[in-house]
Amino acid sequence: MRILVTGSSGHLGEALARASLELGHEVIGVDVAEGRYTNRLGSICDRAFVRRCMAGVGTVYHPATLHKPHLATHSRQDFLDVNLTGTLSLLEEAVASGVDSFVYTSTTSVFGDALSPPAGEPAAWITEDVMPVPKNIYGVTKAAAEDLCQLFARNQGLATMVLRTSRFFPEEDDDRSVRGRYSDDNLKTNEYLHRRVDIEDVVGAHLLAARRAPMLGFRRYIISATTPFLPEDLDGLRAHAPLVVGRRVPGYDAIYAQHGWKMAQGIDRVYVNQRARNELGWTPRHDFAALIARLATGEDIRSPLARLIGSKGYHAETFRDGPYPVDV
After folding, report:
1. 28 is in which domain, residue-wise?
2. Which phi and psi (to 5°) does residue 17 adopt?
């Protein structure tokens, strides 16, 4: 089968291209930047270019996007052009070309202000039923692109799925104060409790979504590591997270002590992947307990695929105060 992968020079794009090639597919890798798995250089905003790339394609994986780190370097119009107009071009050309399935990579950032309950309230239990409240142009355009996918599923019969991925980037956190409190591996391991996923598991979810979209119809799924928490933990998580983690993952504190690490005192949201596991048959392998087991034997917390792909960055230039010029 011929597979089109947008953003093929980026983290997930490269990972999807690698996985598709290993499965014996032909890959059309599309990006504005050169890369090992990019063989069509151009913009998804260029309709004629998209049309040429779409010829004979059976599955489209669409992770290409402007991200949160681009908020300080790109205009709102840029976000509309890439995240919305680009997605519209892909959807329309996918219909015209008779594509079998279209998988759109969205983000848990679409939930926006719904992720941060008021002070004194329990942590938020984030499922697909939570109403998004985007708080910036990134979230607005990602949410609107999701709706475009639903529209094309409804009106044009295109088998589409939306995967709302949590954090899987290898770069440091964009919040300077957070970088000052935790080492990078410490912070990322903490996040596997509630807001991070390994790229290997993200790829697995995309492959399943492409296969099952024609049968299941339009779906939105949260793609995040399986949390050890339950709804009854939400009160305690907000102010006494180490105690709750100790109950759910006994012995983690001894491993943390060996590494000189610390657990976050409070956790404000928990992403729940139950629906994706139930309906897609997705079985993510990388969660907090798995990372603790690796740390206990001196292994790397990252999957082999994550280590292979490494860091891509978001900008050609460097910035004085951090990996990207965003601190919000």
Report:
1. 2-171+197-225+267-286+304-309
2. -65, -45
Please list the residues that pair with 211 across neighbouring strands: none
pLDDT-derived band at 317, boundaries 50, 70, 90: low
Query: Rg (Cα) of the chain, in Å, rounded?
Result: 19
Looking at the predicted structure, is the pLDDT value of residue 328 above 60? no
* Mean pLDDT, range 297-302, rounded to an integer: 96
In this structure, is residue 42 part of a structural domain?
A: yes
User: 36 CB contacts (<8 Å, ≥6 apart)?
Assistant: 9, 14
253 domain-assigned: no
Sequence-ordered list of residues with C-beta below 8 angstroms from that of 56, at least 6 positions apart, any chain: 2, 97
Could you tell me the CATH number of the domain that includes residue 41? Answer: 3.40.50.720
Q: Decide if 243 is inside a domain.
A: no
Torsion, Cα 139 15 88 166, to 10 degrees, reads -20
Strand ranges, E, within the chain: 2-6, 26-31, 40-41, 59-62, 101-107, 124-126, 160-165, 219-223, 269-271
pLDDT at 179: 85
User: 319: which DSSP letter?
Assistant: B
Q: Cβ(86)–Cβ(30) under 8 Å? A: no
Could you tell me the pTM of the whole model? 0.94
- 6: pLDDT strictly greater than 90: yes
Nearest-angstrom CA–CA distance, 314 and 11: 10
Residue 75 neighbours by CB under 8 Å, 6+ apart:
none
